[in-house]
Design brief:
148 residues, mainly alpha, two-stranded antiparallel sheet, 7 helices, 7% strand
Length: 148
């Protein structure tokens, strides 16, 4: 495998992940699932941050970050508070309790989306691929398999 193949695999996995995300009942949003996940990922690595800082780190437009934060706030996944040291700033952080929506997203299996991408409905083949992906995630993303 070379760098191009690895990049293409990553894009394919992102698309499968987006397909696996439950979207029932969330309504229309101006931001994509991908944008929201990029913001969440950045927020996990940089707690107590601002929209501008997230935009600078991710390369996303500030308007897209603001829309993603609004979407995350609406489901109770993040909180935004005025910075007591500088009342002009709003500090963004993950909500202390896991919201119902976050639980729903985390509990939704990838099997159907993965099966569609593999072109099979064979549960054994899908389970085998899930196991390989879990092993890869455990090696490359420390703690991902044990998050609550």
């Amino acid at each position: 495998m070379n760098g191009v193949e690895l990049f293409l695999l990553g894009r394919t996995l992102m698309k499968i992940g987006e397909e696996a995300m439950p979207t029932e009942g969330i309504g229309e949003h101006s931001t994509s699932v991908r944008t929201v996940l990029i913001v969440v990922s950045d927020l996990r690595g940089h707690p107590d941050t601002t929209v501008g800082e997230i935009a600078a780190r991710t390369g996303l437009p500030q308007s897209a970050v603001s829309a993603a934060i609004a979407r995350l706030r609406s489901v109770g996944a993040v909180i935004a508070e005025t910075d007591p040291a500088d009342r002009r700033r709003t500090i963004i952080r993950e909500a202390p309790a896991v919201s119902e929506r976050v639980t729903q997203v985390r509990d939704t299996p990838i099997d159907a989306a993965l099966g569609a991408a593999l072109g099979t409905d064979d549960p054994g083949r899908v389970a085998e691929t899930v196991a390989v992906l879990e092993e890869l995630a455990a090696r490359l993303i420390p703690g991902i398999m044990h998050r609550t």
